[in-house]
Amino acid sequence: MPVYSSISLYARSCKGNFRQENQDFFLVKMISPTRAILAVADGVGGSKNGKLAAFSAVDFINKHLTRFPLDLRQMADVASKAGEMITALNTARADSDPMGTTLTAVAVDGLEAGWVHVGDSRVHQLRVKGSLETITQDHRFIQELINTGELSPAQALTHPMKNILDQCLGCPDLKPDTGRIKLSPGDHILLTTDGLHDHVQASQMVSAFLPTRALDETADILLKQAIKNNSRDNLCLAIARLE
Fold first, then answer.
1. Which of 7, 28, 192, 241 could crosslink 197 through cysteines, CB 3.0-4.6 Å?
2. Do 101 and 59 form a contact (C-beta atoms < 8 A)?
3. 103 or 212: whose pLDDT is higher?
4. Which of 148, 112, 141 is CA-nearest to residue 4?
5. Residue 201 — left, alpha, or beta (φ > 0 → left; ψ -120 to 50 → alpha)?
6. CA-CA distance, 78 to 26, in Å (whole number)?
7. Of the candidates 92, 36, 82, which has an alpha carbon nearest to the alpha carbon of residue 59?
8. Edge-to-edge strands of the sheet including 132-134?
């Protein structure tokens, strides 16, 4: 079986050129040389409480997503409990502007990774041979229209309901998606929020990743590309590379 020596991690978040504050948060955490956890969260809807929701979500993952070997049921349970925490915060604050957030997290364990996902942040796998696959499916209200071909991805970007989620932490009837990814040495895992992936094409993502390119440089290329392509949202990404 092929092996690798370690995982390299990098993450960055910024408010972009149009928003007044940054409501995107990330987590990158080494557990051992071949085990790591990554997560991104995007406060929902520009709510004044979205920042607190997103921060609380990644903080909850940091404290509670700790079990190895991988257990998808545990990952789903942790995400559900994070959602219960956000709901409890909403109840306690009795705020007319309730908080919510996306949450997408990956636990790398050797040559396999488990993921849990709620909302419209995404997990991508960039294989060492240069292909890219988006692993997760958005929990957007218009996603079924995209799946059936009634809306093209380009049309979806300008649809008036493009940012409406039917799943988020803080939403009722939460049902997180989970799954596993098979990995190879040299692969990258990329987590993004919608401010980035809605404005960077797959080919542009692939071209940003080179085996010899430092991860901070790759991140810089992706963030600048999203801004160049007129992203008006916060931007966040987290990257893992199997060295």
1. 192
2. no
3. 103
4. 112
5. beta
6. 16
7. 82
8. 7-14, 235-242, 188-192, 122-126, 132-134
By the 10 Å C-beta count (0-12 exposed, 13-18 middle, 19+ buried), 46 is classed as: middle
Q: Which residue has the tokens 């942040």?
A: 121
> What tokens appear for 208 in the block?
């940003």
pTM above 0.85, yes or no: yes
Give the whole-number percent of the chain exceeding pLDDT 70. 86
Q: What is the pLDDT of residue 165?
A: 85
Interval 144-187: pLDDT, tens: 655 666 666 666 666 555 667 889 999 888 999 999 999 999 99
* Token pair recorded at residue 34: 């071949």
Spatial distance between the Cα atoms of 163 and 147, rounded to a whole number of angstroms: 16
On whether the CB atoms of residues 190 and 135 are closer than 8 A, the answer is no
Nearest alpha carbon to residue 49 among 104, 91, 12, 106: 91
Of 201, 195, 209, residue with least CA distance to 240: 209
Beta pairing partners, 109: 35, 112
Q: Which residue has the tokens 């364990």?
A: 109
C-alpha 221/C-alpha 200 separation (Å) is 10
Measured from the Cβ of residue 163, the count of other Cβ atoms closer than 10 Å reads 16
